Amino acid sequence: MGKLNKLWNWLGLEAEEVQEEVIDMPAVPEENMRSISNVVSIHSNKTMKVVVCEPESFDEVQILADHLKNRKQVIMNFENTPKELSQRILDFVSGTTYALDGNSQQLGQHVFIFTPSNVEIARDARSIMRKHGLGNIFGGDK
To answer: Using one digit for the tens of pLDDT, what is the confidence trace for 19-75?
Structure first.
């Protein structure tokens, strides 16, 4: 395996293997064929893992990137991390997330979530309204 292939593998851009499953269907009269669907979903996530961490050094970023490559969600808390170090780690993990077509979101002042491409981050309507100062319309607080 060449160095370029190792780089692509490390970035998670290697070709994914697709598994196909052949299902024998019983013979069905042609008039009933329209009512039977031949689409079978073989993609399933048995368990979704979330990695929660509070990074203390830049040496941890490769491990965090590996978690994203392995399709795990990463939540990082920077409350006790120095500001410059937090920015370097955020930049690295944000770049990794972008390269893997993942998503990221700031959850709090010092808390961020990074997800692989198979996980969508959806914000609930109340938090969006609170952010725009509309929380009091429905009895919520700002």
So the answer is: 555 555 555 555 554 544 455 555 555 667 888 999 999 999 999 999 999 999 999
- Spatial neighbors of 68 by CB under 8 A, at least 6 apart, are 12, 74, 93, 96, 97, 100, 102, 114, 115, 116
d(CA 122, CA 119): 10
DSSP notation for 46-106: S---EEEE---SGGGHHHHHHHHHTT-EEEEE-TTS-HHHHHHHHHHHHHHHHHTT-EEEE
**Strand partners of residue 51:** 74
> What does CATH list as the number for 48-142?
3.30.110.150
23: which 2 tokens? Answer: 């299902």
Q: List the chain domain ranges.
A: 48-142
For position 7, what pLDDT does the model report? 56
Other C-beta atoms closer than 10 Å to the C-beta of 68 total 23
pLDDT band at 18 (very low <50, low <70, confident <90, very high): very low
Q: Are 93 and 114 in contact (CB under 8 A)?
A: yes
